[in-house]
Amino acid sequence: MTTRDELRLLPWAGPDGKPCYLSTDDQGGYVSRLADHIEAYQLGMASQLLEHARQMLDDETDALEELHLLAAQLTSALRDVLRVATSRGRRPIAPGRPRGAEL
User: Fold this and answer.
1) CB 39 within 8 A of CB 85
2) What per-residue confidence (pLDDT) applies to 4?
3) Are 1 and 74 in contact, with CB atoms under 8 Å apart?
4) CA 74-16-71 angle, 5° bins
5) Left, alpha or beta for 97 (phi > 0: left; psi -120 to 50: alpha)?
6) What is the pLDDT of residue 5?
7) In 3-state terms, what secondary structure has residue 95?
8) Of 47, 67, 83, 91, whose CB is crowded by the most CB atoms within 10 A?
9) Of the candidates 96, 95, 90, 92, the residue with the CA atom closest to the CA atom of residue 19
10) Taking a C-beta distance cutoff of 8 angstroms, is the pair 41, 30 a contact?
11) Do residues 43 and 22 make contact, with C-beta atoms less than 8 angstroms apart?
């Protein structure tokens, strides 16, 4: 997934919230596969949160606590999705795998 001189941004943060990178040309390695699974999970969670937010807005709820919690969760999900997008933007698509089929 990465070229020899390119690092893969991993979908989790290290100590002090700093980004973590993987240097490998083995896309089938344990850490690469783990990162792929975590990215898929993060994207799925973001999708579920987005649907939940849409439903809450449709219900025009006045529950300020619920809206605050949802906003915090959406912020976290957006951070994760942006990290995934940044990472994937740096990696070439594997041959034979159409764009968007990464999940």
Assistant:
1) no
2) 47
3) no
4) 15
5) beta
6) 57
7) coil
8) 83
9) 90
10) no
11) no
For 10-28, give one letter per residue: b (16+ CB within 10 A) or e.
Answer: bbeeeeeeeebebeeeeee
- Smallest CA-to-CA distance from 49 within 24, 67, 63 is with 67
Encoded amino acid at 17, one letter: G
A 10 A CB-CB count for 98 gives 8
Q: Can you tell me the distance from the alpha carbon of 63 to that of 54, in angstroms, rounded to the nearest whole number?
A: 15
60: tokens are 């025009």
Q: Is residue 9 within 8 Å of 2, Cβ to Cβ?
A: no
pLDDT computed for residue 61 by the predictor: 63
Which tokens sit at 70? 């949802």
32 close to 48: Cβ distance less than 8 angstroms = no
Show pLDDT as tens, one digit a residue, over the chain (103 residues).
444 457 888 888 888 888 889 887 777 889 989 999 998 998 888 888 888 888 877 777 667 788 888 888 888 888 888 888 887 776 554 544 444 444 3
